[in-house]
Specification:
Layout (H helix, E strand, L loop, with lengths): L22 H7 L4 E6 L5 H10 L11 E6 L6 H10 L8 E4 L6 E4 L4 E6 L16 E4 L9 H6 L9 H4 L2 E5 L2 E4 L13 E5 L7 H9 L8 E9 L4 E14 L9 H8 L4 H9 L16 H4 E2 L9 E7 L6 E8 L5 E2 L5 E2 L6 E9 L13 H17 L8 E5 L14 H6 L6 E2 L6 H18 L5 E4 L3 H6 L5 E2 L2 E5 L6 H19 L8
Parallel strand pairs: 1-9, 1-11, 2-5, 2-6, 6-9, 12-20, 13-18, 17-20, 18-19
Antiparallel strand pairs: 3-4, 4-5, 7-8, 10-11, 13-14, 14-17, 15-16, 21-22
Helix pairs in contact: 1-2, 12-14
Length: about 525
């Protein structure tokens, strides 16, 4: 059994919590299925998330009203637990107990409702909750999660078997007479199904959260998705709608904050972090690995015709259930390229320009692949190159560059490798550098190239503006928390791997071409 929380003398005499006017009130009263409460630091998002669950306690749903709030680490749940202990006992209604053992770590009300605090970090962690019912799912700081995989997986648990006519509590008057135990004598409404997330901009999941919640509509505007589905309760197909909204909150709304707190926010030196935490600005470059060296006005170039004397090749990272990534590269040789506006571009010899790409994903940010065969990927690469030449962007067919070495893995002696099946379609590759230390070395060399482009000194790296996937993903790649000299491999890093292969291949070739002439 867990430890039952006992309240100190006078604890129940404290005033109950009430929402502040503005975003707290809006978020708490919001009827949507997916709610993202975002914005700056300090408007009271954590309190509101707790109350979004608590408001349905004691209504009659009983044990059917069950919730869970997730974070990636237990230590990050401390603030949620602390605030729940501060406020829940002050709210009128059924008494509650907090069970603080590691196996419980939840609130339990005398009427049966439960709110769990849990960690979830890897896709496999979903199976700890598979088959359970959670009408309320909370995500603490959603941008901590590098991909939407866990959010999407847990949607299968966002359900309830509560049937209003059958499960609304009843008052028995006599053996033949009863009524619903509600103020109006009617059944309770359908159980609300809620996904309530809090976050600031910035963090490993900045990109996918922005695409999912921020880009579709302005703050406060409800996004509706309607689809015809089979309804098991009526045994027929019907139109049903799920709703989504983001609520923006600012520290300026919270009259309990001190000016000293605001002073700390205004004093943050990192420009991106200050914009995110002080203003809730999503139009930042946030992630960690390249956010301080990525300058779109410098590194993103209008598309131009590649000079026929420049080297053109491609790099490749294999994926099936996860995305594959193909990048086409031009390597400058010191000669100028003529731009579409009549001007010229003459980067130093050895500079890499990403001229085209094919990202094999259902949708950027989902980390889900197209599940194409190696043969079909190779055919697609040839077709892409045919189009590039037909449209005049390149004058010659690209040569094979570095590819993920797993394409050479022999899993079964009777089955050709991925490399062999692609070679049968005349698409060939060279080996990528995966030697010890190559990941860290690749990151530093790529950062050096970004800086070289800014300073216009030495071989740099650029991206043509048609390479939308690389432009979207690379700036938001997070560093590994436990190994800051590397990229977090749990992030959507397939494009990065393929870019790294190409950077390492170029730098290794340059190093190998050095000749030392000794006197005879």
């Amino acid at each position: 059994m867990g430890i039952i929380h006992t309240f100190e003398e006078g604890e129940l005499d404290r005033p109950a919590w009430s929402p502040l006017p503005g975003s707290q009130t809006l978020a708490l009263s919001c009827p949507c299925n997916h709610i993202l409460y975002d914005g700056s630091r300090g408007p009271g998002k954590t309190d509101d998330q707790l109350m979004a669950f608590r408001k349905n306690v004691g209504r009659g749903y009983g044990a059917y009203w069950r919730g869970v709030i997730f974070d990636r680490e237990y230590k990050n749940l401390d603030d949620l637990v602390s605030k729940s202990r501060r406020w829940f006992p002050t709210i009128a209604g059924p008494p509650a107990r907090f069970l603080s053992s590691n196996s419980d770590y939840k609130w339990v009300w005398s009427t049966g409702e439960e709110l769990l605090f849990r960690t979830i970090k890897r896709p496999s962690d979903y199976w700890n909750y598979h088959g359970q019912e959670f009408p309320f799912i909370g995500w603490n700081e959603l941008c901590k999660f590098p991909t939407p995989d866990l959010y999407d997986a847990m949607l299968s648990c966002n359900r309830s078997s509560f049937l209003p006519e059958q499960h609304t509590p009843r008052v028995i008057i006599d053996r033949q007479t009863w009524r619903y135990d509600t103020p109006d004598g009617k059944p309770l409404p359908e159980m609300p199904l809620v996904n309530f997330s809090t976050t600031n901009p910035y963090g490993p999941g900045h990109a996918w959260v922005k695409r999912r919640f921020i880009d579709p509509a302005p703050a406060g505007h409800i996004v509706r998705k309607t689809k015809e589905v089979f309804n098991p309760r009526t045994q027929q197909r019907e139109m049903h709608t799920r709703t989504q909204v983001r609520i923006f909150g600012s520290y300026k709304e919270n009259t309990y904050l001190s000016p000293e707190y605001v002073m700390e926010l205004e004093s943050i030196r990192d420009e991106n972090k200050r914009k995110a935490w002080l203003y809730g600005d999503w139009d930042i470059v946030a992630g960690g690995a390249f956010d301080d060296v990525w300058k779109p006005p410098v590194h993103v170039r209008r598309r131009f015709v590649v000079p026929k004397t420049w080297r053109i090749d491609r790099s490749f990272d294999w994926g099936s259930t996860h995305p594959f990534s193909v990048g086409w590269w031009a390597e400058a040789n010191g000669e100028s390229a003529k731009l579409l506006d009549g001007t010229t571009f003459c980067p130093p010899a050895g500079t890499l320009i990403r001229i085209a790409e094919w990202y094999g994903s259902e949708e950027i940010g989902t980390n889900r692949g197209l599940k194409l065969s190696a043969k079909n990927v190779a055919k697609g690469i040839k077709e892409y190159e045919d189009v590039l030449m037909k449209l005049g962007w390149i004058k010659k067919r690209p040569v094979g560059g570095p590819a993920d070495n797993q394409i050479r893995n022999v899993n079964d002696s009777d089955i050709d490798t991925i490399e062999k099946r692609m070679a049968d379609e005349k698409v060939r590759w060279t080996k990528s550098d995966k030697s010890p230390g190559s990941r860290k070395n690749g990151l530093q060399l790529t950062r050096d190239r970004f800086e070289a482009s800014i300073d216009n000194e030495g071989p740099g790296i650029y991206f043509m503006d048609n390479c939308r996937n690389a432009i979207a993903i690379l700036p938001t790649l997070p560093r590994d928390e436990n190994n800051p000299d590397d990229v977090d491999t749990s992030a959507e890093d397939h494009i990065w791997d393929e870019v790294r292969y190409r950077v390492l291949a170029s730098d290794n070739r340059i190093a190998k071409d050095i000749r030392l002439n000794l006197p005879r």
